[in-house]
């Protein structure tokens, strides 16, 4: 089931936005990586900090507290202290509106941090 989260114009390329989703306990982080949209848990799996307060570079978002990183395309933790992957949500765009499928959420299967 797809849930509307925002307009695509709300998340320009290279940017991210934290959005509340009624059916989820925590917000979702919507990211625009070169025109492709990705959605992951907005709360760091290491320190429970809102990742939207951090930074995004390419496909990696960095936690503002301890600088752990996650790949938003897979949810994988890519730099310590982050170890546990983020849940990812499939995205779709319809008429300029961004939707995520909360029923198809998937945790990353592999972590790639050194």
List the helices and strands and how they pair.
Layout: E1 2-7, E2 16-19, E3 28-33, E4 36-41, E5 55-57, E6 60-62, E7 69-71, E8 77-79, E9 87-89, E10 91-94, E11 97-101, E12 106-107
Antiparallel strand pairs: 1-11, 2-3, 3-4, 4-9, 5-6, 6-7, 7-8, 9-12, 10-11
CATH class: Mainly Beta
How many separate helices? 0
The radius of gyration is 13 Å
Q: Structural class, from secondary structure content?
A: mainly beta
Could you tell me the CATH topology label.
Answer: Rieske Iron-sulfur Protein
Q: What is the helix fraction of residues, given as a range?
A: under 10%
CATH superfamily: Rieske [2Fe-2S] iron-sulphur domain
Strand content: 35-45%
The overall strand count is: 12
Number of domains: 1
Please identify, by name, the CATH architecture: 3-layer Sandwich
- Main pleated sheet: 5 strands, antiparallel
Q: Secondary-structure element order, as H and E?
A: EEEEEEEEEEEE
Keywords: 2Fe-2S, Iron, Iron-sulfur, Metal-binding
Pfam family, one: Rieske
GO molecular function: 2 iron, 2 sulfur cluster binding; metal ion binding; monooxygenase activity; oxidoreductase activity, acting on paired donors, with incorporation or reduction of molecular oxygen
Protein name: Ferredoxin
